Amino acid sequence: MCQSTWHDFLRGLPKCEHHVHLEGCLTPELIFQLAEKNNVQLPDPKSEPAYESIQTLTARYGHFSSLDDFLHFYFIGMSVLNQESDFADLAWAYFLKAHADGVHHAEVFFDPQVHQDRGIPYETIVAGFVAGCKRAETELGLSTRLILCFVRHLPVESAKKTYQDILDSRHFESDIIHGLGWSSTEVGPPKDMYREIYASASERGVRLTAHAGEEGDPTYISTALELGATRIDHGIRLVEDPVLMERIAKEGVLLTVCPLSNVQLKCVKTVAEVPIRKFLDAGVKFSINSDDPAYFGGYILDNYCAVHEAFGLSVAEWRTIAENSVSESWIGDERKAELYKSIEVHVAKFAELA
Ligand code: HPA
Ligand code: ZN
Predict the structure, then answer these.
(1) Residues 209-216: what's their mean pLDDT?
(2) Residues at site: Important for catalytic activity (predicted)?
(3) Any idea which ligand is nearest the CA of 264?
(4) How far is the CA of 242 from the centre of ligand 1 (A)?
């Protein structure tokens, strides 16, 4: 953990989180607890020894070999969520942690298709997560945005059904669904599988993001941009294409970087290999995020601290990161002005570090 004054600086630095999967906040404790409450059968430890106990599951999480290896456990974990209150409680647990880590604004992902696939109605999932978001806004003063993610391991027809659910419930118009993203297996399914959905959503003025350039090469990023994404989740392999990197810097496309996730999923060996310095030098905007904190051993502050330990950034550089996180958040100018102000006030308190 970083030195104590720096730790205080990083903890209190007003943060925006743009890349966290609410289902990725399900801890092993909560998985076992909800499985019992909801009568959900977890895998038999004879065939999947990780599910012997909370301890064995936690230990297994320390040895993911790839994105797909992680996703196997992530989708099993999600299967314990049944009631609206399960979704609400999960979101609330995340917001409490985020608030303690200095998050002022959070844009959170959820994967309805996977729940719908096992018979949970779209309305139940959304109502639960919305309740968690509302509670965070009222009780913690956070601003929140809900981003629905399509999952690339399921057929595109499944995504089209969920997209129709959004349209039928008028959740774009009511701003209940603030944006769309895609996630899950990157390499394998067609890069442009959501072309039709993204074209339709673009026409409606819906904000679009996409997981790309995590395991996949930079063409996954350029395809996402071609389909209308204005933000890229992960995007660390962007450094392999200097021309695309220049374009992304020029267009102000935000990368939502998740350093501890990248290490845990073996995209990089250490946090020092995440191209933080290259992005800063090239003027590429990025935010630092937790992705699936219950699986990767750290929430957002742990990611900030890991970056600080690896790169020893200056106060001015941290301020740039914090301000870019605000400027590219999907919020109005008034809220942005509040966040800029709180960053300014916080930085002024730590003049000794500058
Ligand atoms: N990548 C792709 N899909 C995901 C991830 C990720 O890091 N986390 C949860 N779903
Ligand atoms: Zn992710």
Answers:
(1) 98
(2) 234
(3) 1
(4) 25
pLDDT digits (tens, 9 = 90+) for 229-277: 999 999 999 999 999 999 999 999 999 999 999 999 999 999 999 999 9
Q: Per the annotation, does 292 bind a ligand?
A: yes
Catalytic residue flag (residue 215): no
pLDDT tens sequence across 52-71: 999 999 999 999 999 999 99
For the Cβ of 211 lying below 6 angstroms from any atom of ligand 1, the answer is: yes
Q: What is the CA radius of gyration of the chain?
A: 19
Q: Which pLDDT score is estimated for 237?
A: 98
**8 Å CB contact between 23 and 77:** yes
The finding on whether 209 has its CB within 6 A of some atom of ligand 1 is no
Ligand 1 atom at minimum distance from 23 CA: 9
In a domain, 354, yes or no: no
The reported pLDDT for the residue numbered 70 is 98
Q: What is the CATH number of the domain that holds 90?
A: 3.20.20.140
Q: Is residue 15 part of a domain?
A: yes
Atom of ligand 1 nearest to the CA of 74: 9
Total domains, the chain? 1
Tell me, using a 6 A CB cutoff, whether residue 289 lines ligand 1: no
* Inside any domain, residue 177: yes
* Structure confidence at residue 350 (pLDDT): 95
Domain containing 307 equals 5-348
Q: Measured from the CA of 261, which atom of ligand 1 is nearest?
A: 7
Has residue 223 been placed in a domain? yes
Distance CA 236, CA 258 (A): 9
Give the 3-state secondary structure of 93-123.
Answer: HHHHHHHHCCEEEEEEEECHHHHHCCCCCHH
